[in-house]
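Lest this sound abstract, we think one record worth quoting, the chain in one-letter code, the fold tokenised, each line plainly labelled:

>
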Amino acid sequence: MTRLDEGAQALPAIQEWIEARLHDPSLCPAAIAAAHHISVRQLHRVFRPTGTTVARYIRTRRLEHCRRELGDPLLGAQRIGAIANRWGLPDAAAFSRAFRAAYGQTPTAYRSRAARRPPVTGRPPVTGRPGKRLAVGPTGVA
């Protein structure tokens, strides 16, 4: 087995390990490499086929989690800084710059737009025939 094959096999386990620790602001390539008993250089080799760096992967995953929570109406009362902090991004200014660079708008603007979107119920409307909506009772049955 070549080193490349070993890296390809190790990548999902390393990504899973990272995902479980995204909340830790001290998460960095050196800590990841040490936890997996490889050098930082080898860790970067493992990530090379993904087209991103380890640090960029961490930042992207953190921002994705923050974006998802900012769009969640159930978390609308939580401060933006608290959400960012929960995902390992304690510097509010750096978080805001990174979010804007990734999504083209500030976290506040994203949350505001997300709040104006209609809620997703998770199921399509109940219809009898195309274009005609049936009344649905409290049990969900027409």
Summary: Helices lie at 3-20, 29-35, 40-47, 54-70, 80-86, 92-103, 107-116. The chain has a mean pLDDT of 85. Residues 19 and 61 are 8 Å apart (CA to CA). The chain is about 55% helix and 5% strand.
